[in-house]
Design a protein that fits this description.
This protein has eight helices and seven strands. The chain is an alpha/beta fold. α4 crosses α6.
Length: about 200
Amino acid sequence: MKQIILVTGAARSGKSEWAEILAGDSGKKVVYVATAQVDETDLEWQERIAKHRRRRDPSWQTLTVPTALPTTIEASLTHTCLLVDSLGSWVANLLSLEENSWQEREDQLLASLQTAGADIIVVAEETGWGVVPAYASGRKFRDRLGAIIRRIGAVANPVYLVAGGHVLNLSLLGKPLNQSTKNKQQSLDIMNTMIENSSQNS
C-alpha cells in the first residue's frame, strides 16, 4: 500500500535528514525530486545544495523540478519512493502566479499525490511561526505555503514535525483539525442537551 508522508519543520531543524532516512528505509528505488533553482551567482546557496547532495545515497536518482511537480508525481512508478525537497521552493518558484492560476496548481498537486503509484515523501518548511512579513510577497508566500501544507497534512499519514533535531509523529500525538472540530461540536451538542434537560427538570 502506497504512502503519502509529510515532513515539516523550521530551517535547520533536521527535516530533510529525517525525510532521507525514511526514503532509505522504504525498500524502494528512491527518486530525489529537487525543486530549488540553482543560482550560479549565489555561492552560499550552491553550497547548501552541494551539502544535500553529499549526504544523499549515490544510488538515488535526482530530478530537478522547479515547477512541474504535479506531472512528475503523476508519472512516478509503483516501485519507487519520491522524496520531494522542498515544498517551499516549489511555492516560491510559482509565487508570481495570479490567485486563480495558483489555486489550479495547488489542486493539481493534491490530486497527483492521491493518484500516484509511488510512495511520496514531501519536505515542507514551517514559515508562519514568526512575525507577519512586512512586505506583500512575503505574506503571499507564507499564506500559500501554510495553506498547502495543511491540505497535504489532511491526506498524509504519517505527518512528522521536526524541531530542534527531534522528530514528532503528529499522526500519533494529535488528530486532524477537521476531526477535532467535529468532536468539539459533538461535545458542545451534548453539553447543550444536558443544560436543556436540567432546565426542564428544575
